[in-house]
Amino acid sequence: MNPVKTSAHLLLLILLLTSNTLFAADASPNAIDMASHWSGILALTIFVTAILLVSFEEITHLRKSKPVLLAAGLIWALIGWMAVETGTTHSAEQAVRVTLLHYAELMLLILVVMTYINAMGERQVFIALRTWLCNRGLSYQGLFWSTGITTFLLSPFLDNLSSALLVGALILVIEPDNRRFISLGCINVVIAANAGGAFSPFGDITTLMVWQQNIETTNGTLSFWSFFNLLIPSLVNYLIPAGIMHFALPRGELKPSCEQVVMRRGARRIILLFLCAIATAVAFRGLLHLPAVIGMLTGLSYLQFFGYYLKKTHRSQEPGITDTEQLALPIPMDSKNPFDVFVRVARIEWDTLFFIYGVALSVGGLGYIGYLATASDLLYNQWGATSANIAVGLASSVIENVPTMYGVLTMMPTMSQGEWLLVTMSVGTGGSILAIGSAAGVALMGQSKGQYTFFSHLKWSPVILLAYAASIITHLWLNARLF
């Protein structure tokens, strides 16, 4: 699994360190020509080393936030030291403050979304959904399509990683010894999660990153509703491999029996409040022309007030959960205590937030030095936007999609709405080509304990690549007016 990703990163490092074009004088005036200086080369080496350590997370068990946090500090220390030497500290300070502001907006958005997801998990929303699917009395084909479609519909709201973990757990529980079905089912869930997350601003961290940037394209602003132009291309991306894998499924009926689980009090109202929070964020952005994060934080107050109501009216006889169900959930829960919104905040994925911080500051530093300006010229001016965006999507199958998208956003090439949507979809769905290309794939490989592997996914990579190409062609044809 990891050697493929590692090779890609080593190749990137070699190209960056041996290319004369990369160190050309295209850096910004404020970058004091660090691109051709030893300090710039050292900064680039630090970043690539950090990404390599992220790639080895499964082996080292070193959380991915740690190397990129250190890398971000070292890169900006080098920039600051050179700025002091040349008397350009003001420009360096302004650059890091702008990068930090962009991260802060994204971090607060993700924090609210994760808090709501944690709250719904604590109210047993996801366990109840999984139990409902389990007790439908479906065949292998029925379960395959039900889990895939459910994942595709959950991802736009829940995010692709959580959706894949939730539905993937159902496949593993129902048929724990059927390796063939588990492999196909997990591949189906990974593809559905990534495709479903591509057409919604809340479906993936990368789409959320693009939306919160408030990008001005050559033919208008990329609004919240613009992403839904990717619905049909994303559906094509999911349906083609699912339709082909359907013929490889085992035959027969399933007879699983899952204990009935009832959602805890207030679950439906929290779902409604989450939708209201999203609507508030969209209204702040689209109607008031204010940052969406202000609306999203306002939406968090809805949950806080409702949490106060739940705490004051808590009944000790409220239904709890079994130990088995707790272990099956990707979200920690405690049924003995009344609802506490700050417990939900404490249990969000802080490692992910710090990872994004490290990537944002590191990529921002490399952009200040001037490397991304040269890369942008090569990709978007010489190759052309469409070719560059397709290539970026393919790169995301072996490189983490967060730094890939952050690189594009830091370059900020001048593109049409159609091209921005293309890179959003390609980075989101390109990760399905290999099992290591997305967090959903890596997580399910760990969860399945050897029944869904890198090589079992690799057998279907040509079909997934075909779907990737078909979804791009569909987007280019169907949304031609946006280019």
TrEMBL record:
GO CC annotations?
A: membrane
What InterPro entries does the database record attribute to this sequence? Cit_transptr-like_dom (IPR004680), NhaD-like (IPR045016)
One BP annotation, GO: sodium ion transport
Q: Which GO terms describe its molecular function?
A: antiporter activity
List membrane-spanning regions. Answer: 34-56, 68-84, 100-119, 126-146, 152-174, 181-202, 222-249, 270-287, 293-310, 354-373, 420-446, 458-478
Would you indicate the residue range of the signal peptide? Answer: 1-24
Subcellular location per UniProt equals: Membrane
Q: Where does the protein principally reside?
A: membrane
- How is the protein disposed in the membrane? Multi-pass membrane protein
| Domain named Citrate transporter-like: residues | 53-428
Q: Which Pfam families match?
A: CitMHS (PF03600)
Instruction: List where this protein forms a coiled coil.
Output: none
**Keyword line:** Antiport, Ion transport, Membrane, Signal, Sodium, Sodium transport, Transmembrane, Transmembrane helix, Transport
Task: Tell me its family.
Answer: Belongs to the NhaD Na(+)/H(+) (TC 2.A.62) antiporter family.
Name listed for the protein in its UniProt record: Sodium:proton antiporter
Specify the species: Sedimenticola selenatireducens
